[in-house]
Amino acid sequence: MTLLNIDGLSVRFRLRDATVQAVSDHTFAVRRGELLAIVGESGCGKSVLAHALFGLLPRNAEVSGRAILDGVDLIGCGEKRLAREIRGRRLGLVPQSPATALTPVRTGRRLLAETLRAHQRDPALADSLAEQVGLDAAALGKYPFELSGGMAQRLVTALALAPDPALLIADEPTTGLDRPLVDHTLDLLRRRCDSGGTVLLITHDLAAAERVADTVAVMYASRIVEHRPAADVFTAPAHPYTCALLNALPDRAFQPIAGHPPMLTALPAGCAFAPRCTHADGACATLPAGPPVACHHPLVTEAAA
Ligand SMILES: Nc1ncnc2c1ncn2[C@@H]1O[C@H](COP(=O)(O)OP(=O)(O)OP(=O)(O)O)[C@@H](O)[C@H]1O
Ligand code: NI
Q1: Which residues line ligand 1 (CB under 6 A)?
Q2: Which ligand is nearest to the CA of 40?
Q3: What CATH class has 2-90+165-178+196-304?
Q4: Are 89 and 66 in contact (CB under 8 A)?
Q5: What does the alpha-carbon distance between residue 20 and residue 146 come to, in Å, rounded to a whole number?
Q6: Over the chain, what HEC string results?
Q7: Closest approach atom of ligand 1 to CA 96
Q8: 30-62 pLDDT, tens per residue?
């Protein structure tokens, strides 16, 4: 059953002399129990997508399209309803910058207990939540400024989990963690989905997505260019950009992608990857249809059908 239905979602920022097109025409659904990983290079619009869903965009943002979570349009329902009914119980966010998200004058234990209480949950769950994210009791007694980056990261993850949200958006939840803790966090998200929860994992770490995702959406320059089951994306990528991303991994060809992504203030009318793509031709001057694969020359043709 579908939990989140996104239809034609776009976000642009108006600047004095330019417009930043940060999210372009996203249409996708997330099933209950699904772990969808959104991957793509730095600056492609992943966090802006998360903030649009959470209703956290700055004033210069213009949002269009719809994002229906459990019957409620997150884009159109208004700040009051978002604050009262949505953030917390239905929608949780692990923010990308934990340090700025933590209230400095309370210990981790107190922050967690307050969040639990605010959502009618037992504040005594604070210690077990901390344990789930790999924080020990001593760390929980510290103030945010006393925490390392990795500890703060685990605390914001525990805080986002505290209300037990129907959909958890985790924006780079493994930043600052060493490998065992990265895996610990990823496995926690996987278990959450296995027991009926739903997670949208935003990451630039393809290995992380490969470890736990059911489905993967690959973003390039504000658009989703490929959105398919994870096993297919990692074994038979269909978009040349996905293929190039995988080939850049150290344990694959370790071949960096030539060139740079376009400025989001000057996106081309056609395929934005065409200038870097060895398969590009005249057809790429027009916008390809898709996903599942937004490409005029997909590498796996049946996937584009
Ligand atoms: N308030 C804003 N005004 C103008 N541009 C913005 C604003 N917020 C974000 N952007 C731009 O939107 C684009 C997408 O940013 P976003 O943070 O979503 O990237 P990202 O994919 O999350 O990257 P990273 O992996 O580095 O976190 C960037 O070019 C960024 O500069
Ligand atoms: Ni980001």
Answers
A1: 13, 20, 22, 40, 42-48, 58, 60, 96, 204, 264
A2: 1
A3: alpha beta
A4: no
A5: 37
A6: CEEEEEEEEEEEEECCCCEEEEEEEEEEEEECCCEEEEECCCCCCHHHHHHHHHCCCCCCEEEEEEEEECCEECCCCCHHHHHHHHECCCEEEECCCHHHHCCCCCCHHHHHHHHHHHCCCCHHHHHHHHHHHCCCHHHHCCCHHHCCHHHHHHHHHHHHHCCCCCEEEEECCCCCCCHHHHHHHHHHHHHHHHCCCEEEEEECCHHHHHHHCCEEEEEECCEEEEEEEHHHHHHCCCCHHHHHHHHCCCCCCCCCCCCCCCCCCCCCCCCCCHHHCCCCCHHHHCCCCCCCECCCCCCCHHHHC
A7: 27
A8: 999 999 999 999 999 999 999 999 999 999 999
Considering only CA atoms, which residue is closest to atom 31 of ligand 1?
43
Sign of the alpha-carbon dihedral angle for 118, 119, 121, 126: negative
Residue whose token pair is 């604050």: 83
Query: 141, 203, 191: which is closest to 161 by C-alpha?
Result: 191
Would you kindly state where each structural domain of the chain is located, as residue ranges? 2-90+165-178+196-304, 99-164
Closest CA to ligand 1's atom 14: 45
Residue 304 is predicted with a pLDDT of 47
Task: Report the atom number in ligand 1 closest to the C-alpha of 204.
Answer: 25
Per residue in 270-298, pLDDT tens?
Answer: 999 999 999 999 999 999 998 999 999 99
Give the Cα separation of 11 and 25 in Å (integer). 8
Supply the residue whose CA is at minimum distance from atom 19 of ligand 1: 43
Instruction: Looking at the CA of 14, name the nearest ligand.
Output: 1
8 A C-beta contact, residue 166 and residue 185: no
Note if the pTM is more than 0.90. Answer: yes
**ipTM above 0.95?**
yes
Q: Which atom of ligand 1 is the closest one to the Cα of 41?
A: 25
**How many angstroms separate the CA atoms of 78 and 75, rounded?**
7
